[in-house]
Design goal:
Elements: H1 2-20, H2 28-43, H3 45-52, H4 58-68, H5 72-83, H6 101-106, E1 110-112, E2 119-121
Helix pairs in contact: 1-2, 3-4, 3-5, 4-5
Length: 139
């Protein structure tokens, strides 16, 4: 990978020298390759940023960059999106241990809503009849 980086650097340097008129005709094709490499690197900068930051939408950013990167608005939009803050991962939900068969037999299947006096399932946290919060109500 380091060797590839050096090759790209040399090609870009040759391309810049060609632009400045400091290169001979013999190295012209190599310098043009360098300019082409530089153009591709600049064009796909938003995609490189998205992949290096492990953005969740990196594929979408690449598609936007590929299709609309030639417009200034598309390229800047893809770059801003690539640098956008990663969404924070919420705390992982751990599953509660399942009750033993004995606990399930002893546990009531329903409870009474204290607000409307209707019967609801024991696991309910909101009454389906009146919409009241019954999560703190014990069976």
């Amino acid at each position: 990978m380091l060797m590839l980086g050096r090759i790209v650097f040399v090609l870009i340097a040759l391309g810049l020298l060609l632009l400045l008129g400091k290169i001979t005709d013999a190295a012209g094709p190599l310098a043009i390759t360098g300019l082409f490499t530089l153009a591709i690197a600049v064009y796909f900068t938003p995609s490189f940023v998205a992949y290096s930051r492990e953005h969740q939408q990196k594929v979408s950013i690449f598609v936007l960059n590929l299709c609309l990167g030639w417009t200034i608005v598309g390229w800047v939009g893809a770059l801003v999106w690539a640098y956008s803050k990663k969404p924070e991962v919420l705390a992982e939900v751990t599953s509660m241990p399942s009750p033993s068969p004995v606990e399930m037999q002893n546990a009531p299947l329903t409870k009474i809503c204290p607000f409307c006096a209707e019967e609801v399932r024991a696991e309910a946290i909101k009454c389906k009849h009146c919409g009241s919060d019954i999560s703190s109500v014990h069976a």
